[in-house]
Automatic annotation (TrEMBL):
One of its GO terms (cellular component) is cytoplasm. This is Obg-like ATPase homolog. SUPFAM superfamilies: P-loop containing nucleoside triphosphate hydrolases, TGS-like. InterPro entries: ATPase_YchF/OLA1, Beta-grasp_dom_sf, G_OBG, GTP-bd, P-loop_NTPase, TGS, TGS-like, TGS-like_dom_sf. GO terms for molecular function: ATP binding; ATP hydrolysis activity; GTP binding. PROSITE patterns: G_OBG (PS51710), TGS (PS51880). Residues 306-393 form the TGS domain. It comes from Boothiomyces macroporosus. Residues 22-282 form the OBG-type G domain. Keywords: ATP-binding, Nucleotide-binding. PANTHER family: OBG GTPASE FAMILY (PTHR23305), OBG-TYPE G DOMAIN-CONTAINING PROTEIN (PTHR23305:SF7). It comes from the Eukaryota.
């Protein structure tokens, strides 16, 4: 008898919901630039005042995902309707030390983090006496530790509640049920990690263990994190700040992740020049090659949520459709309309790269087909990022549509 295959260890992206409408939440201490960043990302006017807890209820919005492929397709077809992919972003109020025990407005804010699927962890690395800091001084590592500690403490509470619920169910069964060995081993591992202030995403987990955690608990430290360091305009332009190497080292020793330096001050001044091409050009010329960090934030957040998108393109519309990475063709079709997945017949597919290479400037797929790069795919096809797809759909009673 062949040996059992080893259980597959999976990345943190497999924690949480497997859906297309996932959200990134901007998290950090009060007055580190979260709401100002949110306003810039989403071009909205969410309140951004210079005092703690300005944001109480989370603001939610979406920002378009920048993509040259989408721009290229819009340029080819020039349709009356265009729709890019969007990253959904939530601005969450500042956490403080003791939030996991209810300090400040902690419990409410932690529940807002529980409602998102990934985290933009914003930390401030500039001094400014006009902008108060909740701890009266700038210490990026202390701030990183504070947020991680509060999330771990809250997760420990969630795990212990899940254990209590299972033990009560066993007790009520009168001995007919017992705690499963898998549940016991997973919760023991979770308790140990969280008591040692280690986020759950740092652990190695099998698919079975991830499924159990997803089913029994909604944990904060399973969420993927992108770290954002808010610098002064001067430091951002010169690409140097004393905290950046320390933050990078901290991230690498705490499970890894992407670090994106940015400057709210720089981004705000650049945004204010959006309708002044000459002024914008002069500003960027003086900025010594510095460019906006917002596009990188958006594309990184989208990727960290394990999202991709495919395109539909034609005379009436060019559109990017968001799906979870790993979606099959019928699942991708159901994003357009729920019935399309049920009545799926086939997908006609060309990769964007092939379309761009073989397209002769025309709107159709004739040149791509002639090059043998236009494919017919069935129900098991896993959609790739940037696919251009035309779905053939039947009706639910079996008649072709």
């Amino acid at each position: 008898m062949p040996p059992k295959a080893a259980a597959q260890v999976v990345p943190a992206a497999n924690f949480g919901r497997v859906k297309a409408n996932l959200k990134m939440g901007i998290v950090g201490l009060p007055n580190v630039g979260k709401s100002s960043l949110f306003n810039l990302l989403t071009s909205q006017s969410a309140a951004a005042e210079n005092y703690p807890f300005c944001t109480i209820e989370p603001n939610e919005a979406r920002c378009p995902v920048p993509d040259e492929r989408y721009d290229f397709l819009c340029g080819i077809w020039n349709p009356p309707s265009t729709q890019p992919a969007y990253l959904h972003v939530t601005d969450i109020a500042g956490l403080i030390r003791g939030a996991s025990e209810g300090a400040g407005l902690g419990n409410a804010f932690l529940s807002h983090i529980q409602a998102v699927d990934g985290i933009f962890h914003c930390v401030r690395v500039f001094e400014d006496s006009d902008i108060v800091h909740v701890d009266d001084s700038i210490d990026a590592l202390r701030d990183l530790e504070t947020i991680q500690s509060e999330l771990c403490k809250k997760d420990l509470e969630f795990v212990k509640k899940a254990i209590a619920v299972e033990e009560l169910a066993v007790k009520k069964s009168g001995g007919r049920f017992k705690l499963s060995p898998n549940f016991i081993s997973v919760t023991e591992k979770l308790v140990k990690m969280l008591e040692e202030n280690q986020p759950v995403r740092m652990g190695e987990w099998t698919t079975v263990e991830v499924d159990l955690i997803n089913e029994k608990m909604s944990l904060l430290t399973t969420k993927p994190v992108t770290y954002l360091a808010n610098m002064s305009k001067a430091d951002f332009i010169r690409k140097k700040n004393k905290w950046l190497p320390k933050i990078h080292a901290w991230i690498q020793s705490h499970g890894g992740g992407v670090l994106i330096p940015f400057s709210v001050q720089f981004e705000q001044e650049l945004w204010n020049l959006r309708d002044d091409p000459a002024g914008k050009e002069a500003f960027l010329k003086e900025a010594n090659g510095a460019v906006s960090a917002l596009p990188k934030m958006i594309t990184t957040g989208y990727k960290e949520l394990n999202l991709i998108y495919y395109f539909t393109a034609g005379e009436k519309e060019v559109r990017a459709w968001t799906v979870y990475n790993g979606a099959t063709a019928p699942e991708a079709a159901s994003v357009i309309h729920s019935d399309f997945g049920k009545a799926f017949i086939k997908a006609e597919v060309a990769s964007f790269a092939d379309f761009k290479e073989y397209n002769d400037g025309s709107k159709g797929m004739a040149a791509v087909k002639a090059a043998g790069k236009y494919r017919i795919e069935g129900k098991t096809y896993v959609v790739k990022d940037g696919d251009i797809i035309y779905f053939q759909i039947g009706t639910l009673n079996g008649k072709k549509k």
